[in-house]
TrEMBL record:
<feature type="DNA-binding region" description="H-T-H motif">
    <location>
        <begin position="35"/>
        <end position="54"/>
    </location>
</feature>
<keyword id="KW-0238">DNA-binding</keyword>
<dbReference type="InterPro" id="IPR009057">
    <property type="entry name" value="Homeodomain-like_sf"/>
</dbReference>
<dbReference type="InterPro" id="IPR011075">
    <property type="entry name" value="TetR_C"/>
</dbReference>
<dbReference type="GO" id="GO:0000976">
    <property type="term" value="F:transcription cis-regulatory region binding"/>
</dbReference>
<dbReference type="Pfam" id="PF16859">
    <property type="entry name" value="TetR_C_11"/>
</dbReference>
<dbReference type="InterPro" id="IPR050109">
    <property type="entry name" value="HTH-type_TetR-like_transc_reg"/>
</dbReference>
<protein>
    <submittedName>
        <fullName>TetR family transcriptional regulator</fullName>
    </submittedName>
</protein>
<feature type="domain" description="HTH tetR-type">
    <location>
        <begin position="12"/>
        <end position="72"/>
    </location>
</feature>
<dbReference type="GO" id="GO:0003700">
    <property type="term" value="F:DNA-binding transcription factor activity"/>
</dbReference>
<dbReference type="Pfam" id="PF00440">
    <property type="entry name" value="TetR_N"/>
</dbReference>
<dbReference type="InterPro" id="IPR001647">
    <property type="entry name" value="HTH_TetR"/>
</dbReference>
<keyword id="KW-0804">Transcription</keyword>
<keyword id="KW-0805">Transcription regulation</keyword>
<dbReference type="InterPro" id="IPR036271">
    <property type="entry name" value="Tet_transcr_reg_TetR-rel_C_sf"/>
</dbReference>
Amino acid sequence: MERQRGGRPRDSRVDHKILQTTRELIDEVGYPALTVDQVAARAGVGKAAIYRRYASKAEMAFVATMHEQQLPPPADTGSLHGDLLALVRAFHARMAAPAARQLAPALISELAVNPELDTRFTDTFLATEQAAFADIIEQAVARGELAGPVDPAMAHLLLLGSLASALYVLNLPVDDAMVTDLATAATAGIVALADRHHGDPGGAAEPG
């Protein structure tokens, strides 16, 4: 059984109720107008139950709209480019959602000043994302597309870091053409890193 921030066992029914209520209220009133009091009242739980689980409104909303969703299993499309494109399309669908675009700036601000939240974010959400990249890189090495493994954190930065910047910092209208370009650029960057670190300057990978 998972444990709360205070170390006590978590009640999955209460977890589900809090997160479901959070999603409903974000749809109804938007993230800026959302309050912990509203969630507690509609979910029928005390505010203390929420704060035992989440350090802030932003963390609660992030888990409700993004982190609770299971990542799709890494696609094996037959090419590094195809795998990265499938992954970034899946992330674009959730990261570009109105709720995510509302709460991401608030979460980023909190991460900068809340070390506990930053650690949890890194150890849970980012670790899960980077594990997906590790699987994709392993497949590409096995297919002979990469001269050797690449740090998944760097691959993550090249692709999803660029997507997050486009959506949340530059506020660009990201469409599938841009998503495809990001996957192509990330593919080239990952191949170049593998060549650099594993001594195969002639290696290349064709987009798929």
